[in-house]
């Protein structure tokens, strides 16, 4: 289970600190790409291409931020349950069962989140436009 939870840590550097200041981030990005000429004499990217790249970058960043937030929320819910179980008079076996049940529910919820909604997920109530 730990390997599933920590897959994203492969992409993070432990010693690297990320500045939260948007101005500093922009300055770093501009400095990083300012001195690079176009590859093999190709044209510089058009404004539309830059906008699409920025939109894709934003989408990816939002996606991973949401994943990290969901991971943090799951950890917090588990921690709260563990704390409540520690305070309550519950046997170790019952504690393990409760934690296993929480993991099953979390897994089921994540699976439902990934499921794409389709026509088969709905039930028709009335037929419209069939005539008399």
Automatic annotation (TrEMBL):
Residues 13-32 have a biased composition (Basic and acidic residues). Residues 1-53 are annotated as: Disordered. GO terms for molecular function: kinase activity. The keyword Kinase applies. The keyword Transferase applies. It comes from the Eukaryota. Gene3D superfamilies: Phosphorylase Kinase, domain 1. Keywords: Kinase, Transferase. This is Serine/threonine kinase.
């Amino acid at each position: 289970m730990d390997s599933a939870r920590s897959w994203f840590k492969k992409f993070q550097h432990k010693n690297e600190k990320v500045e939260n200041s948007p101005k500093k981030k922009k300055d770093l990005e501009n400095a990083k790409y300012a001195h690079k000429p176009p590859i093999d004499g190709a044209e510089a990217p058009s404004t539309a291409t830059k906008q699409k790249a920025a939109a894709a970058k934003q989408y990816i960043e939002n996606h991973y931020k949401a994943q990290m937030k969901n991971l943090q929320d799951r950890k917090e819910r588990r921690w709260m349950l563990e704390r409540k179980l520690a305070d309550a008079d519950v046997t170790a076996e019952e504690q393990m069962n409760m934690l296993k049940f929480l993991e099953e529910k979390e897994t089921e919820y994540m699976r439902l989140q990934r499921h794409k909604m389709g026509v088969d997920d709905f039930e028709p109530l009335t037929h419209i436009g069939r005539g008399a």
